[in-house]
Specification:
Blueprint lengths: L1 H21 L2 E2 L5 E2 L11 H9 L1 H8 L11 H9 L5 E6 L2 E6 L3 H15 L20 E3 L2 E7 L6 E7 L1 H14 L8 H19 L5 H23 L3 H7 L11 E2 L2 E2 L29
Antiparallel strand pairs: 1-2, 3-4, 5-6, 6-7, 8-9
Helix pairs in contact: 1-2, 6-7
Length: 290
C-alpha cells in the first residue's frame, strides 16, 4: 500500500514539473513566451528538476558508504587505498555537485563516465563546458567559492584553502555599481540601506572563506562609489567633500543618510573551517607548473 502511495505521489510531482516546463516565461516587458526546450537560466526549475532526478545518482554514489558497503568503514577505505583503488564522495547542493576522489586522474574519468551512464536514462547529461576534472592544486569553484590546495606561505606544508571566486566578487560589484550610479537621485538613506542589505548578506555567506582582505577591498570600493555619487549630486570638489565628512582632527566620519550609515563588512568576523592539511591523501601527481 505504501509503494502504491509513493508511486501516486511521484506521478503528481512529475506532472507538476511538466506543467511548470510548459507554462512559458513572463518577460520583463510583461509578455509571455512559449518554452520549447530546457528551463530558464537562473530560475527555480533547473534545481527543482535536478532534485527530483538526483536521488538516483545520490543512491549510486552513496551506496558504498552505507553499512555493508565497500567504503563504509575507515579500515575498508584504507585497504582500498593500499590496493590502489579510489575512494570518493559526492557533495551536492540542488543542481550543483562535485565528486571528490583520492584516486588518479584516470579514476576520476571513470567516475565521470559512471555518472553520465546513471543520468542518461533520466534524460540528463553533464554539461561539457561546466564539467571538468582538476587536481586540487588547480582548484575548482563550487557555490561561489574557489577551493584550492596550496602551500602555506613560508612553509612547505600544503593545506586546502577556501577562497571567494572571482565571479562572485564581480557579481557583487555589479550590484554596488547599479545602486551608486553618479546620476542617481535616489534618497541617500535608501541607497545606504540597500547597500548594507546586499553587502552584509553576501559577506555573511562568504565569511568562512579567506575573506578578510576581500571584505576590506569591497568596503573601500563601495565607499568610493558612494563618494563619487555624492560629489556629482552636490557638485562638490574633493576638498569640499572631505571637509564635510571629517572631524576637525582629520578623522573620517561614516557616510550617513538620516539614521542610516554605510556599514563596513570588514567588521564581520571571518571564521575559517578547520584545516585538515596533510591528512588529505593525494596520490595524483602534481601538475608540472607547481
Amino acid at each position: 500500500m505504501d509503494r502504491v502511495r509513493a508511486r501516486v505521489k511521484d506521478k503528481r510531482v512529475l506532472a507538476l514539473v511538466k506543467a511548470f516546463l510548459k507554462a512559458g516565461i513572463l518577460t520583463e516587458s510583461g509578455d509571455r513566451e512559449e518554452t520549447w526546450t530546457g528551463a530558464p537560466q537562473g530560475g527555480i526549475l533547473s534545481p527543482l528538476i535536478f532534485n527530483v532526478a538526483m536521488p538516483v545518482l545520490d543512491e549510486h554514489l552513496h551506496r558504498p558508504w552505507k553499512p555493508g558497503g565497500t567504503m563504509a568503514a575507515h579500515h575498508q577505505r584504507v585497504r582500498r587505498r593500499v590496493k590502489g583503488l579510489p575512494n570518493w564522495r559526492i557533495v551536492r547542493y540542488a543542481d550543483d555537485f562535485v565528486v571528490l576522489t583520492d584516486g588518479t586522474e584516470a579514476d576520476a574519468g571513470v567516475l565521470r563516465e559512471q555518472i553520465s551512464d546513471v543520468l542518461a536514462p533520466l534524460g540528463l547529461r553533464l554539461s561539457p563546458a561546466k564539467t571538468r576534472i582538476v587536481h586540487m592544486s588547480e582548484g575548482f569553484e563550487f557555490l561561489g567559492f574557489r577551493i584550492q590546495w596550496k602551500p602555506k606561505r613560508g612553509t612547505d606544508k600544503w593545506y586546502v584553502y577556501t577562497f571567494i571566486a572571482d565571479r562572485a566578487i564581480r557579481s557583487l560589484k555589479a550590484k554596488i555599481r547599479a545602486l551608486t550610479r553618479r546620476t542617481s537621485q535616489q534618497d541617500l538613506g535608501y541607497v545606504l540601506a540597500r547597500l548594507n542589505m546586499v553587502m552584509h548578506g553576501w559577506a555573511r555567506f562568504f565569511r568562512h572563506a579567506v575573506a578578510k582582505k576581500t571584505f576590506s577591498m569591497l568596503d573601500y570600493f563601495t565607499w568610493r562609489r558612494v563618494t563619487r555619487m555624492l560629489m556629482q549630486r552636490h557638485h562638490w570638489r574633493w576638498k569640499e567633500f572631505r571637509r564635510r565628512h571629517t572631524t576637525p582632527q582629520g578623522h573620517w566620519l561614516p557616510i550617513a543618510g538620516g539614521r542610516t550609515e554605510l556599514q563596513r563588512i570588514s567588521a564581520i568576523p571571518v571564521t575559517r573551517y578547520r584545516y585538515r592539511g596533510s591528512k588529505i591523501p593525494s596520490p595524483w601527481p602534481l601538475p608540472e607548473h607547481t
